[in-house]
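Dear colleague,

Thank you for sharing your sequence with our group. We've completed the structure prediction you requested, and as agreed, I am returning the results in plain text so they can be pasted directly into your records. Please verify that the sequence below matches your submission; if there's any discrepancy, let me know and we will rerun it promptly.
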Amino acid sequence: MTIRQATDEDWDAIWTIWEPIVRAGETYTYPRDTDYDTARRLWMETPRHTWVALIDDTVVGTYYIKPNQPGGGSHVCNCGYMVAPAMRGKGIARAMCDHSLDEAIRLGYRAMQFNFVIATNITAIALWERCGFETVGRLPGAFHHPARGYVDALVMYKQLG
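Please find the predicted structure tokens below.
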């Protein structure tokens, strides 16, 4: 697997991962009906950098990195990760997280924060904990899950360097 910065030409492949995850509405707060162009702006233009994970030149995962907050909070970064459903459980998310931690340090961030980890996403929570993140906050009933109703969201944090 290789991880490299995403290019405009990668967007169609990223969209094939992004769209079904967002349409399912179980792990991200993006509106479930987000259209192609809006999604592209959100994932490719708003972040500081967007990356893709490739196996045999096929995009199998993607992540972005950006400041968590502007100004006085810009030393803490935020990332979002997506893996193609058929490729889950193969270490891709872990590789992207490790890559993003290295990249965050390279970019001068002092910490990484995940603002809204859905409490029902136990696979992601376990991975982030293995990567050294701690749950520093719980937002009761903050996410409206399409199948489970109102569920908690977690704030997870890791100091860097």
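Summary note from our side: Strands lie at 2-5, 49-55, 58-67, 76-83, 111-118, 134-145, 149-159.

Kind regards,
the structure core
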